[in-house]
Amino acid sequence: MTDGQIVGGRLLGSSSVEEQLGSARAVAAGDHVHVAGCMAGSDGDGDAWGDPYEQARAAFGSALAALAAYGLTADDVVRTRMYITHARDADPVGRAHRELFGAVRPAATLLVVAGLSDPRTLVEIELDAYRAGLANSLEGNTR
Question: Looking at the chain, which runs of residues are DSSP E strands?
């Protein structure tokens, strides 16, 4: 579970990057939750450096922890975006995605990009989730 707090629908305080960018780890918008880019190493999982499969698993783990703060799970994920720095990593990153979401089948995009903010990072993950009635359960949530 993430160590952040939900304030006004925004999950804050789970990454130093948030302060640097002026962003939130995740934002609830109605019955949807949008999780910002997650990478290996951001939550103490730096052992994944050099391994695209392990980096993808770690990044998905961070993203799913953000969803858990809203009471959501992988079953609620409707869209994933995977940014990779090498086309050769598409298969291991795809395998990590399939292991987590093969039964859910969210809309998915896999993009090869020139680079990510940390040169050791091979993959960055974004998630969007939906659950009918979520907005009602979050109303007034200012913990």
Answer: 5-7, 10-12, 26-29, 32-39, 77-84, 107-112, 123-130
* pTM metric for this prediction: 0.90
What whole-number distance in Å separates Cα of residue 57 and Cα of residue 48? 9
Question: What's the domain range around 58?
Answer: 34-131
Domain of residue 72, CATH code: 3.30.1330.40
Q: Is residue 79 part of a domain?
A: yes
Taking only the tens of pLDDT, the chain with its 143 residues reads 356 888 889 998 767 788 889 999 999 999 999 999 999 975 544 566 789 999 999 999 999 999 999 999 999 999 999 999 999 999 999 999 999 999 999 999 999 999 998 899 999 999 999 999 999 988 765 44
User: Is 77 domain-assigned?
Assistant: yes
